[in-house]
Amino acid sequence: MPSEQPADLSPAAIDRMVAEALAAFAAASSGAELKAARAAHAGERSPLSLANRAIGTLPGPERKDAGQRLGAARAAINTALSAREAEIGAAELQQRLIDERIDVTLPVELGPEGARHPITALIDLMSDVFLDMGWEVAEGPEAEGEWLNFDALNFTPEHPARFTSDTLFVAPLENHVVLRTHTSPVQARSMLTRELPIYVVCPGKVYRADEFDATHVPVFHQLEGLVVDKGITLAHLKGTLDHLASSMFGDGIETRMRPHYFPFTEPSAEVDLKCFVCHGASVGNPDAPCRTCKSQGWIEWGGCGVVNPRVLTACGIDTDVYSGFAFGMGIERTLMFRNNAADMRDMVEGDVRFSRSLKGMAR
Ligand code: PHE
User: Fold this and answer.
1) CA of 156: how far to CAs of 150, 153, 186, 206, in Å?
2) Which amino acid residue places its CA nearest to atom 8 of ligand 1?
3) Among 158, 185, 237, 250, which residue is least crowded by beta carbons within 10 Å?
4) pTM of the full predicted structure?
5) Does residue 182's CB lie within 6 angstroms of at least one atom of ligand 1?
6) Would you say the CB of residue 179 lies under 6 angstroms from ligand 1?
7) Which residue would you say has higher pLDDT here, 360 or 25?
8) Pocket flag, ligand 1, residue 304 (CB < 6 Å)
9) For residue 5, is pLDDT > 60?
């Protein structure tokens, strides 16, 4: 409780208040102490504030004098307070700089360096070939509607790829959701949602009820390409595949198409890659056999074809005006060829030594 006695507003009393305040500020040696001194000597219940409140009780002439004295006292206290605040702040900062100093010249122990997964790096590398030509990257979900994975792509209802022995269905079966078995549903998605003309590549994960061995993994990656424009022919497809092949495997590595069947392309072909090891020199040359292509000169790479007009129609595209081509290949397979990765299991086991051994393969 503040003192009950009438406040002493005499010059001597006020001088004493100032002297005590200045002594307390000077004695404070930390921000916290200064805060306490401030509350005691300049706060609402400080002698100075109480004196200030008492001014009104004085008769007129004395009131004026007392007011002036108190004003001067307050100014002196505030000045001393800010000066001390600045001093203590600077000292505390100085101390922190000393306490928190770190020696940046000390040797550090670096953790093992990581690396991007080679599949990710290769996806970027392959996508860049197309981005450089002005194509776009399209994406779609891995849990896909059965209609988009099969029906829109002209698979008949009894097509064997729909069997649960080949395709992983998401329970319950009545929902007709599959883990996409190829990236081709992104073709349908692109045609249903994009403006024409369409130039897209879609890299992504696909799922099949497959074995897990050196050349099969049940979850792998494909790169799909789709073009829909006016006047598109097989020649555009061949040129695009050759460009991708030489970008991935070097000049002179071209592709060849072998007739095949896919429900969503007509005509369809399998894409073979010229053997990037013997460049075909082993063919008919028993003296120089090639292990990579088994002296065939070509290696199977993926599938392709002219987009089946039934697919264009299912996606609402006028087949009198537009035509297109599509292709798709395995990214793991491409990595095996390109970087001599003999065992696909290395690509999924997550051993960082594998990633590191192929580090820097991209670009
Ligand atoms: N989707 C086919 C597969 O997974 C590949 C393919 C893509 C074929 C595009 C033709 C056109 O085997």
Assistant:
1) 8, 9, 19, 21
2) 303
3) 158
4) 0.71
5) yes
6) no
7) 25
8) yes
9) no
